[in-house]
Write a structure and sequence with these properties.
The structure is a single chain. It contains 18 helices and 23 strands. The chain is of the alpha/beta class. The strands form six sheets. The chain has a six-stranded antiparallel beta barrel with strand order 13-14-21-20-19-22. A five-stranded parallel β-sheet has the order 2-1-3-4-5, sandwiched between helices. The longest helix is centred in the first third of the chain and has 23 residues.
């Protein structure tokens, strides 16, 4: 049998493009402080536990910008208050954003615990020689009593005293906690760039600064869309980069046929101008988010600074798109893992300024490092409806019906699925993507002249079909009066349909937009009775789609942020929340999540 080899990705630039240090993980080795035999016998084992955790995290985790995660350890174990204080001082200097406490033995809980407001976890070694599990229980009780929720990590199987390995179940929880804690720390102090205001009455584009500040530790930077007009007309961008970008577009962005009525179609000159404005919009919006040193060199010092925006959104419709080219090219390219400058970290940018879907995309990106998909949760197609319209009988994963995810805007080109992992379609962190995969994504994409009924000012919309077989997670944050934010998520897969079936269904919506056929994992109960129930219970018209089944990671992250999860299909054994959550109803974990989040309140709001 012939085999193909996966080409290694070329070296890519990893850079933190935002202001502020990348957060580090603080590892706290805790020990029984009694000298003259007890502490001395435990020093080596305890420090080795800490080093093992550091080696695990540093070898397995990267920041979304591609830089490896760093861990900080104190020089000595922590046996009491003085050493805990010294460790805290070190962590503050080193920009530690989350902590993991480890111990194989009994220690003095309230004297050694982490009293900072940072996300925190405690691993108590499951061994019989010394009671690490007893300390774990004692210190978690102290955390709960003092209102500082911590995640407890306790291996299922007893280990021998000299066993320095990390069991698989402990490893999974350490990685899950660290990914979520790093996401929390990365958001802190950053901005949401609200480019424009409310789009067509969409609730998520009624941007709520209190939500960003209280729950995410972010600020909202509101910039009127007229700033884009100013930067385009006054040429506030890197002109050399514009030249390269336009050349890249001419080479790599294949233009499709114009579906508009012949009498309404824009001229060739107008379309060429639309391309140029679309590229200028992309440059200007990126510079608004993260700044650009080239602008300072050109005499635009204030504009060169950017807004330190980790996330952004563009109102577009309708005031902009009734007059100017739409933002589809800008949104798609910003959200992709590549552009005319090569392979790079994707930006996270929301269509229609839907800040809540943008936040959902951001959470997925911070957990996975991958590009995210913004889509309308547009249509549920039942097996009967598909049979009636196309004559086709849905089968396999699609047998219970499919959800059509489609939107004109910010679907990253990575979502074509033309990158591969183990021979299967995938969306990968940018540092794993090869130039050949970039080219394949571009070749799978057609840019159609905008539908002028929707976009009177012209522009171009990307069109592609996402390959089936990819595990994905759809998520959404919603705000509810009296409740606050809630998160819902659905793990599932993209699926393939026969070409003629896809075409028939797709043309009933808009054949110039990217399509993703999605099937959630269902269990016959509640909102996951079937695919119809998932869509029927979805809380908004948009969803954020992330590669991989990352529902468990999202649940852990939501607990850190005090955002309850109202709907998920993650197996119960994979749900990982702070130990305090059991005190709010161990037999009813979903209700306990709501009560615990309400009790402890927004992470930054009290």
């Amino acid at each position: 049998m012939a085999t193909t080899t996966q080409k290694e990705p070329q070296a890519v630039v990893t850079v933190n493009r935002l202001i502020g240090s990348l957060p580090k993980v603080g590892i706290r080795p805790i020990i029984d402080g009694r000298r003259r035999g007890v502490r001395e016998s435990l020093e080596g084992q305890t420090m080795e536990m800490a080093r093992q955790v550091a080696r695990l995290l540093q070898s397995r985790l990267r920041h979304p910008c591609g830089s490896p995660v760093e861990c900080v350890l104190p020089a000595t174990c922590i046996g009491g208050v003085a050493e805990a204080a010294r460790c805290a001082a070190i962590f503050e200097r080193e920009a530690v954003g989350l902590t993991i406490t480890v111990t194989p033995c009994w220690c003095y809980g309230a004297e050694t615990m982490d009293m900072s407001p940072l996300p925190k976890a405690v691993w108590g070694f499951n061994g019989t020689e010394r009671p690490g599990a007893v300390y774990l229980a004692a210190v978690l009780a102290a955390h709960n009593q003092k209102g500082l929720p911590a995640f407890g990590i306790y291996g299922r199987d007893v280990q021998d005293r000299g066993d320095a390995s990390i069991p698989a179940d402990v490893e999974q929880k350490l990685l899950r906690f660290a990914r979520a804690g790093l996401a929390v720390a990365t958001m802190r102090g950053k901005s949401y760039l609200s480019l424009g205001g409310t789009s067509m009455g969409i609730a998520g584009s009624i941007v709520d600064p209190d939500f960003f500040e209280d729950y995410l530790g972010m600020r909202v930077e509101a910039v009127d869309m007229s700033e884009l007009v100013r930067r385009i007309e006054e040429e506030i961008f890197d002109r050399e980069e514009l030249r390269r970008a336009l050349a890249w577009v001419r080479t790599h962005c294949r233009e499709g046929r114009d579906h508009n009525e012949a009498t309404r179609q824009r001229t060739r000159a107008q379309k060429d101008a639309d391309w140029e404005i679309s590229v200028k919009m992309t440059l200007a919006t990126r510079d608004l988010m993260v700044g650009n040193r080239a602008l300072e060199e050109a005499g635009w010092g204030e504009e060169a600074l950017g807004r330190n925006a980790l996330l952004g959104g563009f109102q577009g419709q309708r005031q902009w798109t009734d007059h100017f080219p739409n933002g589809d090219f800008m949104e798609a390219v910003l959200n992709s893992s590549f552009d005319w400058n090569g392979i790079r970290q994707p930006f996270v940018f929301a269509t229609e300024n839907d800040s809540l879907n943008g936040v959902s995309m951001l959470l997925g990106h911070l957990l996975t490092g991958t590009a995210q998909v913004f889509a309308d949760v547009r249509t549920y197609w039942s097996p009967a409806a598909v049979k009636r319209v196309t004559g086709h009988t849905l089968a396999g994963r699609a047998a219970g019906g499919i959800i059509h995810l489609i939107n004109s805007g910010a679907a990253a080109l990575d979502a074509t699925g033309r990158s591969t992992r183990d021979g299967q379609p995938a969306m990968k962190p940018f540092w794993e993507i090869t130039p050949e995969e970039v080219e394949a994504c571009l070749q799978a994409t057609t840019w159609y002249p905008a539908n002028l009924e929707y976009f009177r000012g012209g522009g171009f919309s990307s069109q592609f079909l996402t390959l089936g077989g990819m595990p994905v997670t759809m998520s959404r944050v919603n705000l509810v009066e009296g409740q606050g934010p809630v998160l819902q998520l659905a793990e599932g897969w993209t699926v393939d349909l026969p070409a003629e079936v896809h075409q028939t269904l797709d043309e009933r919506t808009d054949p110039t937009w990217p399509t993703h056929w999605f099937v959630p994992r269902t269990d016959g109960r509640g909102p996951f009775r079937d695919a119809y129930a998932v869509m029927n219970d979805w809380g908004a018209n948009h969803g954020a789609i992330s590669y991989g089944h990352v529902g468990a990671e999202l649940i852990t992250l939501a607990a850190m942020l005090r955002i309850p999860v109202c709907m998920h299909n993650v197996p119960e054994e994979e749900v990982f929340r702070p130990s305090a959550w059991t005190a709010f109803g161990a037999h009813e974990p979903q209700g306990a999540d709501f009560r615990a989040c309400a009790n402890f309140g927004p992470l930054y709001g009290r």
